[in-house]
C-alpha cells in the first residue's frame, strides 16, 4: 500500500493524461492477490518471495531498505507492551511512534521521523 500512496499516487494521473486510451484501475491491498485468477494485467508488489505461478514475469523496479522502528520510550522500558496487529502498513507507523511495538517499515516511509528522533 505504501508504494501506491507514496510513489504511484502522483504519477498515475499524469500517465492517464499522456495516454488517454489506457484504462487505469488502481487496486490497493495488503492481501496477497492471485493476479491470474483475479484478472490483473500489471501488478506492483513489495515482496521478495518466489512467484507461485511460473508463467508470470517479475522485474525488480528498485531496492528499498526496510527498517525496524519504534519510539525511544519503547526501547527504554522493560515493562510488557500492548500487542497491536494490523494488516496494512499505514497504521503501523503511528503505533510505533506511540511506543506500542517495534514495526518493520520501508525506510522511505520512516526516515524523516527517525531523523527527527
Provide an overview of this structure:
By secondary structure, this protein is mainly alpha-helical. The chain has helices spanning 2-8, 12-18, 72-76, 92-97, 107-116, and strands at 66-69, 103-106. The radius of gyration is 18 Å and the shape is elongated. The protein has 2 domains: 1-62, no CATH class; 66-116, no CATH class. The relative contact order is 0.17. It has a two-stranded antiparallel sheet with strand order 1-2. It is built from 5 helices and 2 strands; from the N terminus they run ααβααβα.
In round numbers, the mean pLDDT is: 76
What percentage of amino acids are in beta strands?
5-15%
Radius of gyration: 18 Å
Number of structural domains: 2
Distance between the termini: 25 Å
**Elements, N to C (H/E):** HHEHHEH
Helix share, percent: 25-40%
Q: How many helices does DSSP assign? A: 5
Number of strands: 2
What are the defining features of this structure?
117 residues, 2 domains, 5 helices, 2 strands
Topology:
Layout: H1 2-8, H2 12-18, E1 66-69, H3 72-76, H4 92-97, E2 103-106, H5 107-116
Antiparallel strand pairs: 1-2
Provide a short characterization of the protein structure.
This protein has 117 residues and is mainly alpha-helical. It is 30% helix and 7% strand.
Amino acid at each position: 500500500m505504501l508504494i501506491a500512496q507514496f510513489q504511484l499516487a502522483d504519477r498515475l494521473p499524469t500517465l492517464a493524461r499522456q495516454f488517454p486510451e489506457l484504462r487505469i484501475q488502481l487496486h490497493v491491498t495488503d492481501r496477497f492477490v492471485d493476479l491470474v485468477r483475479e484478472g490483473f494485467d500489471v501488478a506492483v508488489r513489495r515482496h521478495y518471495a518466489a512467484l507461485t505461478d511460473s508463467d508470470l514475469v517479475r522485474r525488480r523496479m528498485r531496492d528499498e531498505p526496510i527498517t525496524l522502528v519504534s519510539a525511544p520510550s519503547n526501547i527504554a522500558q522493560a515493562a510488557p507492551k500492548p500487542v497491536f496487529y494490523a494488516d496494512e502498513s499505514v497504521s503501523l507507523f503511528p503505533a510505533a511512534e506511540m511506543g506500542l511495538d517495534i514495526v518493520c517499515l520501508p525506510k522511505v516511509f520512516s526516515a524523516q521521523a527517525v531523523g527527527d528522533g
